[in-house]
Protein 1
Amino acid sequence: MDRLVKNIKDKTKEKALINFLRELPFIDIEESTVQNKNKTASSNVRKLFGIWKDRDVSLNEIREKAWPKMNI
């Protein structure tokens, strides 16, 4: 079975499309809504502005800490 995701630009046509698809015997309609899992009520991107302002950190130091070299 294949799955189709619909992105409808004109919301006024959405109900007509869903009704049409329901009439087709080979199509099953499964309605669901997508929720953003990463967004929380207290998240605020502006709180992150300037967090590195007074720190002397280079990009290489960040990379070395994030991906340490493995001795093989």
Note: Residues 1-33 form one domain.
Protein 2
Amino acid sequence: FGTVVSGGDAGELAVALRDVASGTSAVTRKGGRSSAPVAFMFTGQGSQYRGMGQGLYRTEPAFRAALDECADLLAGHLEVPLLDLLFTDASGVLGRTRFAQVGIVAVQVGLVRWLESVG
């Protein structure tokens, strides 16, 4: 399922999303694939936080597989294992650019793979 809202600016989008969430807006849902193009928008640095992606990692196999793949690819290139960086940040380095960018991109890869898996 997906929900699409439209608006001319951030304020209109926020109102439309609130209406959907509160049930005051009619939502049309349809299953299956569409021929319409899909675009993804991702956050940049500053959006990282300890524990990001952890819930999906626990519950969604496609997300977990993608994050595990990223972790394997990054092994030996980071001083901190990716999953430790994301889920505990015990070393306190997630706020540093080198680590934040890697963590954010890995979570984004996981999100795309998860979304692909659910259609």
Note: The CA atoms of residues 78 and 99 lie 8 Å apart.
